[in-house]
Specification:
It is built from eight helices and 13 strands. By secondary structure, it is of the alpha/beta class. The chain folds into two domains: 169 residues, P-loop containing nucleotide triphosphate hydrolases (Rossmann fold, 3-Layer(aba) Sandwich); 104 residues, STAS domain (Transcription Regulator spoIIAA, 2-Layer Sandwich). A seven-stranded parallel sheet has the order 1-7-2-6-5-3-4, sandwiched between helices. A six-stranded mixed sheet has the order 8-9-10-11-12-13, covered by helices on one side. The protein is elongated and about 65 Å long.
């Protein structure tokens, strides 16, 4: 297979014809990214098709329970394929193609396909058959004017060679939507480690946004570290550092706030004012 040059794209920016890959390394990351992808499609009256290992398999990021799926969602079960002892990519693609055709005939112009195929790698001939499946998906999705696909793989359950081959089969790598983005600052969730990446410039006009995003994250994380990746910041003012210090003090005893990839100059500032000694605040990996 020809190696593709993959680009990272937030799921909200995926376009018809995109056949993308999400390699997730924790369940929260999968729920977060796929929940946004599926949720946006359902919220705008689109059609969502999920390929699942079985009809009652839990679908990450999808509200509801088996037997009470949201309107607009169809689950394509590959249970019979799995029981055969092999993956059977042609059978899987035929089932997917039928659902896409039904959706198109029903007048849907936003059709989203979500599939976690990690399980197929455990079957005999798993990687070659999954790669064949990806070729079929690419041939089906890429010319489409209404279908977007996100294939999902659990990075914790894969060998390095498998992951490299499957990345090469996708021109787009799906990424989380930013928690905030404007022309100056972008804030993106990270999952290994848990936290945020800050890219751009942090000045007084964006303190409120920073405080709100941090508050939302800290409410959901208790008893573990929160890491802030500062490597993408070109500027940060003392007010933003003070927000970090306040968050750290509020979280004291519930897991530290770790500042990663700080510039030497910023480390000097932190040490000069003594913030590096605050309970709940830790300087992490150097920039």
């Amino acid at each position: 297979m020809e190696t593709l040059v993959s680009v990272r794209r937030p799921v909200r920016e995926l376009r018809p014809g995109d056949h993308s890959l999400l390699v997730y390394n924790c369940d929260e990351e999968q729920r977060h990214v796929i929940g946004a992808f599926v949720g946006d499609g359902l919220a705008t009256g689109g059609k969502v098709i999920c390929l699942a290992e079985s009809a009652d398999a839990p679908l990450p990021g999808v509200p509801g329970v088996p037997g009470a799926r949201p309107q607009g969602l169809t689950v394509v079960s590959l249970q019979d394929v799995r029981r055969s002892g092999r993956f059977g990519p042609r059978v899987a693609m035929q089932a997917l193609a039928r659902e896409i055709k039904r959706a198109e005939e029903a007048g849907f112009r936003d059709i989203r396909v979500a599939a976690d195929m990690t399980w197929s790698l455990r079957l005999p001939g798993g990687l070659p058959e999954l790669l064949e499946n990806e070729r079929h998906v690419e041939a089906t999705i890429s010319p489409s004017t209404c279908v977007i696909a996100v294939c999902q793989l659990d990075g914790r359950r894969m060998r390095p060679g498998d992951l490299d081959a499957l990345r090469d089969a996708h021109s787009i790598l799906a990424a989380p939507n930013p928690e905030f983005e404007d022309s100056v600052l972008r804030i993106v969730r990270t999952f290994r480690p848990t936290g945020l990446a800050l890219i751009g410039e942090l000045d007084a006009s964006r303190h409120t946004i920073l405080d709100e995003v941090l508050a939302t994250l800290t409410r959901s994380v208790n008893g573990s570290e929160i890491h802030l990746d500062l490597s993408g910041l070109g500027f940060i003012d003392l007010g933003a550092l003070n927000i970090f210090a306040d968050v750290a003090k509020r979280r004291a005893g519930r897991g530290p706030l770790v500042l990663d990839q700080m510039s030497p100059q910023l480390c000097t500032v932190m040490e000069t004012v003594g913030w590096h000694m605050l309970p709940g605040l830790r300087l992490g990996d150097a920039g």
